[in-house]
Design brief:
The chain is α/β, with parallel strands linked by helices. 44% of the residues lie in helices and 11% in strands. The protein has a domain of 298 residues: Alpha-Beta Barrel (TIM Barrel), CATH 3.20.20.210. Helix 18 runs antiparallel to helix 19. The protein binds glutamine (GLN) and zinc ion. Zinc ion binds next to loops. The site of glutamine (GLN) has 12 residues, from loops.
Length: 766
């Protein structure tokens, strides 16, 4: 009884949940059909986990959209306007309107939800690429139970013959993840919230649950004293409610540091520790945990794709077992497997060597089960598995595919000058002379609509029914039409449209050495949206130019400047699964030089402007403040290495989105891009204030319209925003562009929007 799991991916191995959700949202299936698909997935996942040897698979880890939203709904934390009244259950219409905004469907209309009702704000779940919906607490928020989803999930599993361990997001993390509509401290709401948790626990106990997992991921953050006090208060109260229900408090994603002592003194039955991110916690926990506290040891990486070194992990567990009876130890993944792809078995496209190094969620659970068996039955019981693991690890370490002497030499020869250009003031003169742009130059962020036609052509090419020449001709046609159209409407700096790219990271991964791409390694990003991060397994280098041909062909079509389009080293790494055998900084440095080569090849091909996208720049920030500096210094340096090989007359742009920049302004300025385009339209140019206060020295394109908004932007509104910008910044510093790439929009939307944008710029010039 010692192999546990903290959470399983929800989507299904073929992304069945995505299909079911999207069919429901488009009106093709009703509530019952969606709920049936969800129940099927849960049943399948419970069965799969117990088959893998997990003692009590988690329940209530599933969600139709997001588990934080589910908790908000369960507690009646629903702002007015979403078709819910206290005392009622929360309908799917309400739940999805909170998640996605009012879409004007019949279901919403029946529930009284207006079209255009905004969605809740969405933000990143700690330092993962999963996004949760931010609960909004009203002034004087009262909590009311709208149902007990954790109890329902437990009973659903029980009916299938499975005793599960229900998962709840703990009350302190829940409050800290939300925001107060009227200002104030969300932790003040704890006394009103605790009775609902207590009632949930009571009902779980009555339903037959013996363990409950309460997640308090906030333990890995810098916490104010009040939050630690709140944890003590909450768990002291909850532990007294149900003495027969063991609470396993789960932390993950980092070293608990000063919060570890707090966690170890809480009157809970057990504590889960992420020993992949913070192995050093084990000794402290073994020394200081109360004698009867269960320690759940997260030794299998829940966030990466590498097979566990079972011998090493087992050694760690044996050390723990020497200090503590094994009944008091549990083996688990480091965190919920939500962040891991589902199953490696169907990845038949990966070469066998690489595959042998990897483990997805299903394989990770097998690893957990093996380790747990060794712990209870002794090393002999898992001797064969340990040998096999040793052989795999040894093969990986010895593989010639990991290390490329040329890459090592390149990095060793790197000099500080690699990250320095001549001062911006000089570059600016040279660039102005070369580009000869008007005031308020107009441009876009790179991609144009990925139409059904493009997707069909790509699929046909993949299937082999459209040959390389045919596909190339098709893409060239799309590009030419886009270039002509940009000229026609008077865009100043053109883009080729990125029609040949499926994804801004995977596209480059296909060209770079050291990268592998999976077929089905999907991970949930938000709602039905999944991402498929490529895998960096070895030293990264660029055997040949990746984007030069398309850029050159695009530039040949026009006399206006064409902007080359690249993904930067920080983002490439942030959105990949990264090898764990060398430090992350080293991987990022390799990427920086690979991108640098591409930038220089673009320059040599006559491309006057190169944009290096870094939308994930801020995402990489560590959870703890005192680690920010080291990360930012390295990230800035890597961006600069990629950008600084070019002559002064070559203009470097960067693009960032989904970010608050205020607290890292100085570092963004240090990146020293000639032009940065940022997302500002949604916050009405508030973001721009940060750039003004700091006196951002180079040029800026504050996004003048929100490309994600359903309504078309008005020229007058864009002009107004530009005037706001022009009041705050020198006019010759301002560029005019949308706030992100346009690949998710339709041409019918993009055409009028960009025509109006150019109009707004012209009127401002006047
Ligand atoms: N150049 C990319 C595009 O236009 C940038 C995407 C992004 O910011 N995420 O699609
Ligand atoms: Zn963007």
């Amino acid at each position: 009884m010692s192999a546990f799991n903290l959470g399983f991916p929800r989507m299904g191995v073929r992304r069945e949940l995505k299909t079911a959700l999207e069919s429901h949202w488009s009106g093709q299936s009703d509530d019952a059909a969606l709920l049936r698909s969800a129940a099927d997935l849960r049943a399948r996942h419970w069965a799969l986990q117990s088959l893998a040897g997990i003692a009590m698979p988690p329940s209530n880890d599933f969600s139709l959209y997001d588990h934080v939203l589910d908790h908000a709904c369960a507690f009646g934390v629903i702002p007015p306007g979403y078709g819910w009244r206290p005392g009622e259950r929360v309908s799917l219409a309400t739940r999805f309107a909170l998640a996605r905004g009012g879409r004007g469907t019949a279901g919403e209309a029946a529930a009284g939800i207006a079209r255009g009702t905004p969605a809740l704000e969405m933000t990143k779940w700690f330092d993962t690429n999963y996004h949760y919906l931010v609960p909004v607490f009203q002034p004087g928020q009262e909590f009311t139970a709208t149902g007990f989803p954790a109890v329902e999930a437990f009973e659903e599993a029980l009916a299938l013959g499975q005793v599960t361990r229900p998962v709840l997001l703990g009350p302190v993390s829940f409050l800290l993840l939300g925001k107060m509509a009227g200002g104030g401290d969300a932790l003040d709401l704890l006394p009103g919230l605790l009775p609902l948790y207590a009632e949930t626990l009571r009902r779980l106990e009555a339903a037959g649950a013996r363990h409950v997992q309460m997640d308090e991921p906030c333990l890995a953050l810098d916490l104010p004293h009040a939050a630690r006090a709140a944890l003590c208060h909450a768990y002291t109260a909850l532990a007294a409610v149900t003495p027969r229900l063991s609470i396993i408090l789960a932390s993950y994603f980092g070293d608990l540091r000063e919060n570890l002592e707090t966690a170890l003194t809480l009157p809970v039955a057990g504590l889960h520790l992420d020993l992949v991110r913070a192995p050093q916690m084990l000794d402290v926990a073994l020394r200081h945990a109360p004698p009867r506290m269960i320690l759940s040891l997260g030794v299998v990486d829940g966030r990466n794709v590498w097979a566990t070194d079972l011998s090493r992990a087992f050694l760690k567990l044996r050390g723990a077992a020497a200090a503590r009876r094994f009944e008091l130890l549990q083996v688990a993944p480091s965190c919920s497997l939500l962040h891991s792809p589902v199953d490696l078995a169907p990845e038949t496209g990966l070469d066998p060597e690489l595959r042998g190094w990897m483990a997805f969620a299903r394989q990770k659970l097998e690893e957990v089960a093996i380790l747990a068996r060794g712990l209870t039955e002794g090393r002999g019981a898992i001797a064969a598995e340990l040998l096999a693991s040793d052989a795999r690890q040894e093969a990986r370490r010895a593989s010639p595919r990991l290390h490329d002497p040329a890459v090592a030499a390149r990095l060793a020869a790197g000099r500080p000058e690699d990250a320095v250009r001549v001062p911006f003031t000089r570059r600016r003169v040279a660039q102005q002379a070369r580009l000869n742009l008007p005031a308020f130059p107009t441009t876009t962020i790179g991609s144009f609509p990925q139409t059904a036609e493009i997707r069909a052509a790509r699929a046909a090419h993949k299937r082999g029914t459209l040959d390389a020449a045919g596909y190339d001709a098709f893409l060239a046609g799309q590009m030419e039409a886009a270039v002509r159209w940009q000229e026609e409407i008077g865009m100043d700096v053109l883009v080729h449209g990125e029609f040949e790219r499926n994804d801004m990271v995977e596209h480059f991964a296909d060209f770079l050495e050291g990268f592998a791409v999976t077929k089905n390694g999907w991970v949930q990003s938000y709602g039905s949206r999944c991402v498929k991060p490529p895998v960096i397994f070895g030293d990264v280098s660029r055997p040949a130019a990746m984007t030069v041909e398309w850029a050159r062909r695009a530039q040949a079509l026009t006399t206006r400047p064409m902007k080359g389009m690249l993904t930067g080293p920080v983002t490439m790494m942030q959105w990949a699964f990264v090898r764990d055998d060398i430090p992350r900084d080293a991987v990022r440095r390799q990427l920086a030089y690979a991108i640098r080569d591409e930038v220089m090849d673009l320059e040599a091909a006559g491309i006057p402007i190169v944009q290096i996208d870094e939308p994930a720049f801020r995402e990489g920030l560590p959870l703890r403040r005192d680690e920010w500096d080291a990360y930012l210094t390295d990230a800035v340096t890597c961006f600069r290495i990629s950008a600084s090989g070019v002559r002064e007359a070559t203009q470097i742009h960067t693009h960032m989105c989904y970010s608050e920049f205020n607290d890292i302004m100085d570092r963004i300025a240090e990146m020293d891009a000639d032009v940065i385009s940022i997302e500002t339209a949604r916050s009405r140019m508030e973001l721009l204030e940060a750039f003004v206060d700091f006196r951002y020295p180079n040029e800026i394109g504050p996004g003048v319209y929100d490309i994600h908004a359903p309504a078309l932007p008005e020229a007058a509104e864009m002009e107004r925003l530009l005037r706001v910008a022009a009041q705050r910044l020198p006019a010759d510093q301002i560029w005019v562009n949308p706030d992100c790439g346009l690949k998710t929009r339709k041409w019918e939307e993009v055409r009028p929007a960009l025509i109006r944008m150019v109009e707004a710029a012209r009127s401002l010039r006047g």
